[in-house]
């Protein structure tokens, strides 16, 4: 049974999201295959979700992610003793950055410039053609997430939205938007977690269990 089947078995309410989850996975897979990265942003609980996603992608989630023999040899060639420790403990990673986590940068930009453009400034600095922005917004209308999405599309990034059931500015702008079938904020957030866990598991299966 694949990860999407497991998801809908456990959360039948998410059956309506399967096609969009698959499409989001394809965007992420294509980006990572070309050494791209994921930028993630959201506010409040969605900011916590952004950090959570980064944690699942940047280290082993469900399965071990052993380094390749080439990487192991390269570490040991630099320093035999430390290289061995690193080889035994480092894990394969899928590059991801949560845009809400840079306190000095965020507060400096909010104080000196325009507070609602803080995520957009980081997309402008970090984003490269072929990267992906994941904007998390229960309403789909969070201004700072929308500014980030506009900047991302202008720079050639794919945009994935993760929202509630209602159509929104983010769902209209995103290349794909996963709209979980709830309208109450906390209920939307409760369904966001299994969705992004599924995406992270799908990526781990693809890149690290061949």
Automatic annotation (TrEMBL):
Origin superkingdom: Bacteria
MF-aspect GO terms: carbohydrate derivative binding
Domain SIS: 28-209
GO BP field: carbohydrate derivative metabolic process
Protein name (database record): SIS domain-containing protein
Originating species: Bacteroides xylanisolvens
């Amino acid at each position: 049974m694949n990860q999407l089947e497991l998801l809908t078995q456990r959360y039948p309410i998410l059956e309506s999201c399967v096609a969009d989850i698959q499409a989001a996975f394809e965007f992420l897979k294509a980006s990572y295959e070309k050494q791209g990265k994921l930028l993630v942003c959201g506010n409040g609980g969605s900011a916590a979700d952004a950090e959570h996603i980064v944690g699942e992608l940047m280290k082993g989630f469900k399965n071990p992610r052993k380094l390749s023999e080439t990487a192991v040899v390269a570490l040991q060639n630099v320093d035999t003793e430390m290289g061995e420790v690193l080889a035994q403990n480092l894990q394969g990673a899928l590059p991801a950055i949560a845009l809400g986590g840079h306190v000095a940068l965020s507060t400096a930009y909010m104080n000196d410039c325009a507070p609602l453009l803080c995520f957009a400034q980081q997309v402008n600095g970090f984003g490269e053609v072929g990267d992906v922005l994941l904007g998390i917004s229960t309403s789909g209308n969070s201004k700072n997430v929308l500014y980030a999405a506009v900047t991302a599309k202008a720079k050639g990034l794919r945009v994935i939205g993760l929202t509630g059931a209602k159509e929104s500015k983010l769902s209209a702008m995103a290349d794909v938007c996963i709209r979980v079938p709830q309208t109450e904020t906390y209920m939307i957030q409760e369904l966001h977690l299994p969705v992004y866990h599924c995406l992270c598991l799908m990526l781990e299966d693809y890149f690290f269990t061949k």
